[in-house]
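User:
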Amino acid sequence: MKRIRIAADVGASLMDRLAADSRFDVVFRNVHDSAELIGLVRDAEILVTRHHNRVTADVIEAAPQLELIAQGTSGLDNIDIDAARARGIAIVGVPGENANAVAELVISFMIALTRTVPAYNEQVRAGLWQRDDCMSRRELRAHTLGIVGIGRVGSRVAHLAGAFGVPCVAYDPYLDPYEIRARGAEPCASLDELLSRSDILTLHVPLNDETRGMIGGAELDRLRRGSFVINCCRGPVLDQDALFARLGDDRLGGAALDVYREEPPVDVHWPDRSKLILTPHVSGCSRESKDSTGRLVYEAICRHFGIPPYPPTRF
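Assistant: Predicted structure:
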């Protein structure tokens, strides 16, 4: 039996499949720090993680029999890939499987920000009924959406935005202009060009040395005054302090964050909440995305060991 150690809630889809498969010895423990993770992996041959599990070199060193790390979310920036490769440990992920869930939340943020839903919510709660300025709010189709990174998630955002009549521009240095157009956006030759053309900026890039801090104060200042910023990829891609400063001086019209510099955020001085929407890194979380991710993780584990999924027709 292959020993699988699961370090986070990966949903019923994967757990049901593993429970029905006698070839695996499964232990699940919802761990939150490296010390707990080290305790879980000591006899693991397979480790299943989600993004909040920090698979450091120390964790990998504590698991001498580890052969495979299966990540149940998009992105691998929580894993010390160099340390894993040095040990010959394989890593599999499910990039883009939550693309629709993320894209739907981005669209909801776009609507809430452009129609100033957070501000109206605060006013009504305070007993105010201020409708005089409502006709100054503009529909989505009056805004140009700038998409940084038009991979699986970014292209899904472009597709959904297109249904609202939103013109989309995109910057992605790894795709040629023809492919960007095929994904629903007008290509920009540079990040500067995209920023200067955007009323709404949404970020959909992985976190790596190239993207860390790619949107700072200088980049935010290139946006049109009153623009909106949405980050549902990784917190360190965006300079959080620079964003807050520009919300405070009304340089930006609003922002929505699902990801943060550190998670969960600690001792943060939040700007005016009527201009800022906050969610706890849930953009990719839905029943549908978890079910699909669980199936793919199970199939990836079986494929790694050269065994067929079992039972083949039950699920």
